């Protein structure tokens, strides 16, 4: 009888230790559950992981980075900067999250333009009614020895879809695109051919391309907005 009680107590203590060990080994799951409960259904907590700073945890809500404490009581919005090096750790982490595989892109769904030897490659997601896209296109004219893949994603208006179809279905899509984006010549062709617009939109949704222009380089990194040509050249140089 005493032996049975002793064995039962040992088993209970062992099970308690295992459960305690698991709790200590997986605080991230507990924090995730706690924060998700507080944020509700409107925000999806993708993951929780230890942050570079002791005592803090990185919280991914969609692709946005937040930080929290071990209790999940606080949600901190801001950037972690390493003072010794001046490195913006949050910015670098965000860049990694936004990275794609270049091979995931489908060149056949893009308007292709080769200049010079075409050795440097760039993908641009663009809406024909996007003012910043038009500004970017004027800047991109300064690039040489480059292959530019332009993926049309009509996200701004129904007219964007119409123009995108007219551009794609024209005899020379690149000329029609540049005539409109740089010279303001409205596409006049019929929008009666098969287009990759739905596929481009699906790609944009999958990879979180929510604004135009968005640029991708061969290392998978993305630059949102009308990027300065100097920054594009600097990025190309870093890929050599």
Automatic annotation (TrEMBL):
It is found in: Periplasm. Pfam families: DsbC_N, Thioredoxin_2. PROSITE patterns: THIOREDOXIN_1. Residues 23-91 form the Disulphide bond isomerase DsbC/G N-terminal domain. The keyword ATP-binding does not apply. Residues 1-25 form the signal peptide. InterPro entries: DiS-bond_Isoase_DsbC/G, DiS-bond_isomerase_DsbC/G_N, DiS-bond_isomerase_DsbC/G_N_sf, Thiol:disulfide_interchange, Thioredoxin-like_fold, Thioredoxin-like_sf, Thioredoxin_CS. Keywords: Disulfide bond, Periplasm, Redox-active center, Signal. Residues 115-234 form the Thioredoxin-like fold domain. The keyword Transferase does not apply. Its main location: periplasm. Gene3D superfamilies: Disulphide bond isomerase, DsbC/G, N-terminal (3.10.450.70), Glutaredoxin (3.40.30.10). Belongs to the thioredoxin family. DsbC subfamily. Required for disulfide bond formation in some periplasmic proteins. Acts by transferring its disulfide bond to other proteins and is reduced in the process. This is Thiol:disulfide interchange protein. The lineage of its organism: Bacteria, Pseudomonadati, Pseudomonadota, Betaproteobacteria, Burkholderiales.
């Amino acid at each position: 009888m005493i032996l049975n009680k002793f064995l039962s107590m040992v088993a209970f203590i062992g099970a308690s230790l295992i459960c305690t060990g698991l709790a200590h080994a997986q605080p991230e799951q507990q924090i995730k559950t706690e924060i998700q409960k507080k944020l509700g259904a409107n925000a999806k907590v993708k993951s929780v992981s230890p942050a570079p700073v002791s005592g803090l945890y990185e919280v991914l809500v969609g692709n946005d980075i937040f930080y929290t404490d071990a209790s999940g009581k606080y949600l901190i919005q801001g950037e972690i900067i390493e003072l010794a090096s001046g490195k913006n750790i949050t910015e670098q982490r965000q860049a990694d999250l936004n990275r794609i595989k270049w091979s995931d892109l489908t060149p056949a769904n893009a308007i292709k333009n080769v200049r010079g030897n075409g050795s440097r490659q760039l993908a641009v997601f663009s809406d024909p009614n996007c003012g910043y896209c038009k500004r970017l296109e004027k800047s991109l004219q300064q690039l040489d020895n480059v292959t530019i893949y332009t993926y049309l994603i009509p996200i701004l208006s129904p007219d964007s879809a119409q123009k995108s179809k007219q551009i794609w279905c024209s005899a020379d899509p690149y000329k029609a695109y540049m005539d409109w984006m740089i010279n303001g010549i409205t596409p006049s062709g019929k929008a009666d051919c098969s287009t990759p617009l739905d596929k481009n939109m699906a790609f944009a949704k999958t990879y979180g391309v929510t604004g135009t222009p968005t640029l991708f380089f061969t290392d998978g990194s993305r630059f949102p907005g009308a990027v300065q040509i100097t920054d594009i050249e600097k990025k190309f140089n870093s890929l050599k």
